[in-house]
Amino acid sequence: MSKGTVVLAYSGGLDTSCILVWLKEQGYDVVAYLANIGQSEDFEAAQKKAESLGAKKVFIEDLRAEFVEEFIWPSVQANAIYEDRYLLGTSIARPCIARRQVQIAKQEGAQYVSHGATGKGNDQIRFELTCYALYPEVKAPWSMDANLMHIRLFTNPDYKHFNRSINSNHAPSDLYLMTKNPDDSPNHPDVLEIEFNRGVPVRVTHLKDGRSEDTPLDIFSFLNEIGGKHGVGRIDIVENRFIGMKSRGIYETPGGTILYHAHLDIEAFTMDREVRRIKQGLGIKFSELIYNGFWYSPECEFVRHCISKSQENVEGKVQLSVFKGQVYILGRESPKSLYNEELVSMDVQGDYDPCDASGFIRVNAVRLREHCRLQGDLKK
Amino acid sequence: MSKGTVVLAYSGGLDTSCILVWLKEQGYDVVAYLANIGQSEDFEAAQKKAESLGAKKVFIEDLRAEFVEEFIWPSVQANAIYEDRYLLGTSIARPCIARRQVQIAKQEGAQYVSHGATGKGNDQIRFELTCYALYPEVKAPWSMDANLMHIRLFTNPDYKHFNRSINSNHAPSDLYLMTKNPDDSPNHPDVLEIEFNRGVPVRVTHLKDGRSEDTPLDIFSFLNEIGGKHGVGRIDIVENRFIGMKSRGIYETPGGTILYHAHLDIEAFTMDREVRRIKQGLGIKFSELIYNGFWYSPECEFVRHCISKSQENVEGKVQLSVFKGQVYILGRESPKSLYNEELVSMDVQGDYDPCDASGFIRVNAVRLREHCRLQGDLKK
Amino acid sequence: MSKGTVVLAYSGGLDTSCILVWLKEQGYDVVAYLANIGQSEDFEAAQKKAESLGAKKVFIEDLRAEFVEEFIWPSVQANAIYEDRYLLGTSIARPCIARRQVQIAKQEGAQYVSHGATGKGNDQIRFELTCYALYPEVKAPWSMDANLMHIRLFTNPDYKHFNRSINSNHAPSDLYLMTKNPDDSPNHPDVLEIEFNRGVPVRVTHLKDGRSEDTPLDIFSFLNEIGGKHGVGRIDIVENRFIGMKSRGIYETPGGTILYHAHLDIEAFTMDREVRRIKQGLGIKFSELIYNGFWYSPECEFVRHCISKSQENVEGKVQLSVFKGQVYILGRESPKSLYNEELVSMDVQGDYDPCDASGFIRVNAVRLREHCRLQGDLKK
Amino acid sequence: MSKGTVVLAYSGGLDTSCILVWLKEQGYDVVAYLANIGQSEDFEAAQKKAESLGAKKVFIEDLRAEFVEEFIWPSVQANAIYEDRYLLGTSIARPCIARRQVQIAKQEGAQYVSHGATGKGNDQIRFELTCYALYPEVKAPWSMDANLMHIRLFTNPDYKHFNRSINSNHAPSDLYLMTKNPDDSPNHPDVLEIEFNRGVPVRVTHLKDGRSEDTPLDIFSFLNEIGGKHGVGRIDIVENRFIGMKSRGIYETPGGTILYHAHLDIEAFTMDREVRRIKQGLGIKFSELIYNGFWYSPECEFVRHCISKSQENVEGKVQLSVFKGQVYILGRESPKSLYNEELVSMDVQGDYDPCDASGFIRVNAVRLREHCRLQGDLKK
């Protein structure tokens, strides 16, 4: 008799294949689920493999559009970046994948979900927190089987090669899949214009060849293509995992890096200084929440709402050049610009009286002078 | 009879020459003061000019070493960056320059200080707040004379060319003084190793040619040279001035950009996650204070102290490559690393029990499940 | 010929009467405007006085309901408190009063507004910032006339008696207008139940005598009455003005103090911990903005929106007792409570596995043990 | 053969007596440890009981002085308060108690520690995090024995009576041990003067009867006595536990409440506004850390250091009255006051030019007017 049904996030790789078999052996019915979030993978072959290993059912789900619109776009609005460097690409994939998995579990009457993200990492947390948040009664079995663990690690070049040798080894350039080595990238830049509305890109145009994209998925894919061609968005960092360890992370985020710079720029152009300051703090909080797996949490919903509110006037076009691993902002324009040429100009006095600046400075100095006075008094 | 003595921050340029003459005409004795903070300038010629225009005395002060040690180094420790992009180079020069000016004023018995930073900018504020903070009784006269203003602006390419044309004009590449155009920069990277102690660089070594520098000024100059050669640290941004206007800023910070990346990296390697999080908030505060001219303020002293405290274990070496406008971190090592290879490794279980992660996740999910439960209850 | 029309915020007192006369003498037409925000004042007499002094027109505006609903209620939602102690009563009155003044100025075609809040205080700032924010072209003339100033100060007991003698004098008990001295207050408490919806009170009931109020103005007036009767909400503090001085403030906020405690309680009962933490930070920001006069600013609008969003589930009833200057929370109930009796109970294990706590603790300790390990290593 | 030695935090009560017996039965040698942090308890009787139950050794440790100096005083400096209401009394006792327990364990060669704080509470976390932080190799066994749990709960009035009945029952007044019911408290206030140095109390004087205390323990005990006599510091709250549940807490903190108000006051009088603002944020962080059990953590050490630094000038005397559950600040004085009577006075112009305020306001309004301009433009 079956112990119940498990929906397994299946990758087609060795790890999750082993888990599939192990779950069957334990007496579970297994529904395999493959999420397409844009990775290059032979989904048909994976489906066949899952079936041949005994999956009762196989779901292959194209989540690319919803991943871009519902997960990447809010991160762009937030200028989400973890510990000043990591653009959180994999972190936001987990809740997207797990959400669908929960939907399938509910639909198939499965009481269990499973995944291959075992061990000491963040992905287990992101996966399981999402499942608990969306389906509180669910359980998540996973194996402690030593063999299985070993196989997994042995085949995982990321951990094998990099975490071990953090002090001595530099990352080999053939590690990267999406980005060219800047050494080998073109000797001429591509110049793009990205148009934003409410803080999300609505169109990208290649200013030379005129190619233009305007659906979220096409925009993001195009930016990945251009960024990848020029080697944009590679980082090699030490990061702090939620479980309190430091680990080395090597990431490539070509399209996300372009969007990060472009969005920062249009936001600075259209958003009030003090709103920006408050929103910056919310964006840092948002980044920590995403990294730690709390996409589906009351606080993350709250922060997303607030950040989204801040983006109402973040609208306009940014021109930028992509070249040798770098993104250069060239200019920007917006119908909602708060940049006032006349106000800032040195040869138009306009409404601004230089005497006001003196008063402004002297009032700001009241505190400083008092502090100085006290220091002087104390020395007497 | 003299109205009193003014110490004028003199640049040798047209603006401050006009101010010098105007102050003399108004009846002041003028002491001209030129600060050398590393800019390329003919100080001897400037001295002669000041004398010929009637300066009673001329001080030429080499502040380069103290600028690096007392102003740049604390900014490196703080990862100081204004509005996520601007590394604050000019902002930290003002308090350094004004501090010496106040010292000269006190020494010369001058009741007045003056400067050329008139108008709508941040520099007037930074200059005057510093003076008030260090010499509360001082006064700072400056001219509203329309002609003078006009001359100044007419000769200031920065404002003339860039603020006006923010939406349409891209910055011409000959604007930059310290950095090569990345297009024309070398086709091979330079690889450096920077050694830090207590969060400040104590040595830089060129890993190929073996050149090594170990005084603050030499280290910073060398990094400026290498960064400049590879076109590192150019930005074209819209920023929010303290007086509430948005303005366009075009900056180049070659050495500072290299240090920013290197310091972020060694800090992530040696600093506890939660200390880092608190310190990040202090660094953002510090950056705003510097930008707004509050280097000499009780809160900035407090924040500097706290940040400095956080750097006690920020020690070690970072290897990096500089190429085509980009800084790539290659690796790092430290006697105070908090990276624990064994702990993070997937094939050593060590002290870490995977069951703990499940408990950790389930306890973190308590809140999320309650939230979900309430949402469900409310829908009934 | 008239210099133009001024709308003067007129109080009927000596100061603003002098300003009215002075403005007439300067050649302005003066429209007098009296705002009723609940202070006890003879508005009819004030109107006659303004007319007799030459006001072209007199507006007496009852702003009590909008003051409670649009200004006090959002402050209650925010738990707004400045520097941990001051509940901001007068601070939120200014934007309410100035907003109507701007409306009258626009309606009457007045280019000028004026007020009696001269000098070194916060109220001038709150008043003028509101006017500039809502009517950017407006001007605000006020007199520097020494006599006028002197008269004003001479008649202002608040400043006269208290700011001078901050170190030695205790506030005399007859200073307070709204609250009884706790010494003389009743020897038996009043017990109230306040019902909240979306974070604002919608009903208050006296649990003994059954009196119940349910409009914002009536609720707030009743709470002022009960709080006043029991001497609730008196404070004697030193606060930091926006212009950088410390000043002494003596305030009484009977109804606001009751609402502060009641709202804190119902919020804690219904709001997720982490949402609360983020919202607490926004509330502190909100309080500073209000204090400094930025009610009408993009950042304050943004923060108000976010805080209001956080209040969606802040609903339920709080029972409290008011006695001898103190508010005691007795209990609370809510249909949206996140308090789960079964979950927290010690004799129901339910869904919560004590082993999870051990895992949770051990994972939280990973960082701490690493820190300890490093400290030990460094000592070797 | 012994499984090893356990140091048990023993209270003399039923729970820890059961644990002692259970540990013996499991084969451990048990060292009983009783910490005296000021609770009223018959330590001699407890010692005898532990011995009679088979403890190999019994330590009775008087931690009162170090508890006040090393744990309470830093909390006073921080104005530590959790979720705006709870003064953290029990939270700071745990690390104090556990620290000595670890010292005893090391000295006695014990590999294990144990305690009675089982279940769903914060105290288990505070206890165990402290032990792991100070003695990473230690283990902490505790029982899941259902009987034991049941007994514990049955005899624990706190949980029994209050957590169950949160919505309907008001706390009975005989629950409180340290504070009189304000109803029954004296009809005349006691007036105290507390002197601070570097943010901690160094003397308390009863202004009428002249009694004066000047050691930390005596000061705190005296304040507990006076506060208790007048019913100060009772709260009945719902709080958010670290493990994500809401629970009801009923606390009494008489001396701590007096110190909280007095310290807030002297701090406001002597600390720069902006330093205070930054320090307020650190204090909130500190409170969360303490509540969650992270007293011994790198971030808490860092924050304590920063807060302590902020207190350098927090010096002076506060006069206050304690009456019917309330603390009223009457006045304050300090050699390091930043309150400047002349500066703030309305009839001394002194150094402050009212025109400066107008400039200050107009510059602050630049942003607001731009925002208004944009809103207007957008509506066209």
TrEMBL record, chains A, B, C, D:
Top EC category: ligase
User: Where would I find the Arginosuccinate synthase C-terminal domain in this sequence?
Assistant: 142-369
MF terms from GO for this chain are:
argininosuccinate synthase activity; ATP binding
* Residues spanning the membrane: none
Please provide one cellular component term from the Gene Ontology annotations of this protein: cytosol
From the Swiss-Prot or TrEMBL record, state where the protein is found.
Answer: Cytoplasm, Cytosol
GO process annotations (BP): argininosuccinate metabolic process; L-arginine biosynthetic process; urea cycle
InterPro entries given in the database record: Arginosuc_syn_C, Arginosuc_syn_N, Arginosuc_synth, Arginosuc_synth_CS, Arginosuc_synth_type_1_subfam, AS_cat/multimer_dom_body, Rossmann-like_a/b/a_fold
Q: Where is the Arginosuccinate synthase-like N-terminal domain?
A: 6-141
UniProt-listed Enzyme Commission number(s): 6.3.4.5
Specify the protein name: Argininosuccinate synthase
